[in-house]
Amino acid sequence: MQEIAAPRYAPRNGDGRSQLACFRAQPEAQGYPAFNALVYSADTLLPIVEMEMQDFWLPDDSHPYGAVARVYLWVHIALGWAFSILAVAGFTGLIRTEDTT
């Protein structure tokens, strides 16, 4: 039977507690909302709506793809603002189609 290697974040002292388990045991962890990708995406795309996900969860820049994820987040936020401005302009009549008849 092949032995399964311990995860990278497991401590080497053998007490069996991971970094995530240590975080969850802290009182501050109770205030963190569980990560939901769909809610996080909506929270970053919609500039006026506050779902409190963006305040707690951000891409990790120390990860090899973290910088790419951070740039994607900025583009996502910028597109959200642009689409919101276009929607408001369309609803208020600032953007109209030209009547050619």
Structural descriptors:
101 residues; mainly alpha; 3 helices; elongated
Integer average pLDDT: 79
Report the major sheet: none
Structural class: mainly alpha
| Beta content | under 5%
Global outline: elongated
Spatial separation of the terminal alpha carbons: 80 Å
How many DSSP-defined strands? 0
Helix content: 40-55%
Order of SSEs: HHH
Which residues form runs of ≥5 with pLDDT under 50? none
Rg estimate, integer Å: 22 Å
Number of helical segments with 4 or more residues: 3
In short:
The chain has 101 residues and is an all-alpha fold. It has helices at residues 19-25, 37-45, 66-92.
Structure report:
- The protein has a domain at 34-92.
- The radius of gyration is 22 Å and the shape is elongated.
- The mean pLDDT is 79.
- With 101 residues, it is an all-alpha fold.
- The chain contains 3 helices and no strands.
